[in-house]
Amino acid sequence: xxxxxxxxxxxxxxxxxxxxxxxxxxxxxxRVPLTPPRRGSRISGGGIADRLADISxxxxxxQVDDFVSLRLSVLRQVRDAMAKSQDLQKEYADAQGRVSAxxxxxxxxxxxxxxxxxxxxxxxxxxxxxxxxRTHPVFxxxxxxxx
Length: 147
Fold this sequence. Notes:
mainly alpha; three-stranded antiparallel sheet; 147 residues; rod-shaped
């Protein structure tokens, strides 16, 4: 079942590059069993040696040059389409204005300070905290670290 899913994904046109992965890799989409054969194609492969004998080296060089230029053209189109898609995705992400919450808790410093001790009440200490911290200034001794 998995090979069929992989084949279907590779044979579908993707939004970013505008091509199928088969087309990008091999410059052609594979024929599926329901695809009718093209006219003049020989499924059996008979007579291929006769056709290859008639090909001149100049024709082969031209075909190779055409293949390479087509390949480079497709790769250039894919690269441009991917860059355009990345720019569009960046615009959408920047428009959301989300800030990562990773640094808010996970990598935040565990201890801050030093702060001046104002009072000592049994197992708790009252600290002189700035108003902008907006937290209660009395802490249990186990939560404090000597400076």
